[in-house]
Design goal:
With about 100 residues, this protein is an alpha+beta fold. The radius of gyration is 17 Å and the shape is flat.
């Protein structure tokens, strides 16, 4: 996707939203606009070793539930020490070309 594709314009301010809707399942902007708490947590890796995350949207004013959920997820599948090996290799390869 070319750089700038997800940007709105004065004539078409929601252009970026429409384009992003083709591949994004969760858009944190709506949480920001509504004031609802939201979080995205890394929950694993795909077959290529790239990180896979899950996004969660909470009830208005209820950040505590998301914090508790994040703590439970971290305990069940710790991610703090994970290193994105496949991503690091891909970035290194792109810098060489």
């Amino acid at each position: 996707m070319p750089l700038g594709t997800l940007r709105g314009t004065e004539e078409e301010p929601l252009r970026g939203e429409r384009e992003a809707g083709r591949f994004l399942m969760f858009d944190g902007e709506y949480a920001n606009i509504s004031g609802n708490p939201a979080m995205s947590v890394p929950l694993g890796v795909d077959s290529d070793g790239l990180p896979v995350g899950m996004s969660f949207l909470g009830r208005f004013g209820d950040e505590a539930t998301l914090f508790r959920l994040a703590g439970q997820l971290e305990k069940a599948a710790p991610w703090a020490d994970r290193k994105p090996g496949a991503l690091a290799r891909a970035l290194a390869a792109s810098r060489r070309s």
